[in-house]
Write a structure and sequence with these properties.
Structural class: mainly alpha
Number of strands: 0
Distance between the termini: 24 Å
Number of helices: 10
Shape: elongated
Largest sheet: none
Number of domains: 1
Radius of gyration: 18 Å
Strand content: under 5%
Order of helices and strands: HHHHHHHHHH
Helix content: over 70%
Length: about 210
Amino acid sequence: MTIENWWLYVVTVLVFMSTPGPSHLLMISVGMTNGFQRSLATAAGDLTANLVQMTLAGLGLATVLLASEYGFSVLKWCGVAYLAWMGIRQIGSSFKPRRVVDKARVSTLPNLWTKGFITSAANPKAVIFFAALFPQFIDHNAPVPGQILVLGITYLVIDGIFLAFYGKSAHWLAQLIGQSGQALIDRAAGVGLLGTAILLGLKTNKQL
């Protein structure tokens, strides 16, 4: 793979990420309620799922997933239901007395990681996306595994930067609003989770 091909790949990924997706909305929600540093656990969960999806794509399972429409639906809608439930619960908590909400509003790191992992894993067509994207930039006259590794790491780094940006921006906004607007923050975070669920639901019938 030439350096020119690599730069073209970087531009392609940047264009792909220019529109916020489900994982970005989730980072906004988590960043507002749990802070930037803790939101990195959610980003880690998302990137872990991406790594698994890249591995599956590399193993040639994209064809299997394409043939398993039922498996697609089950995995996707489980993720949609989970995120919608979390969003509704977040909005409901915003109407409770603050002393009750403050004790429960900060999630544990494993829970934050799980949110990120489920949000990304609930879109199994990402496996097909990686299986279709990588070959466009691979030089088949050179060792393929090393090129796939470079493309995968590049994607994870770019995605990680985007996720951190959304988490940091949301945390900054929450600090700007302050404690007086905490109920509003909780509602906005809940809406963000519902938006994440809706985007995943819409992706059920869309090709990446």
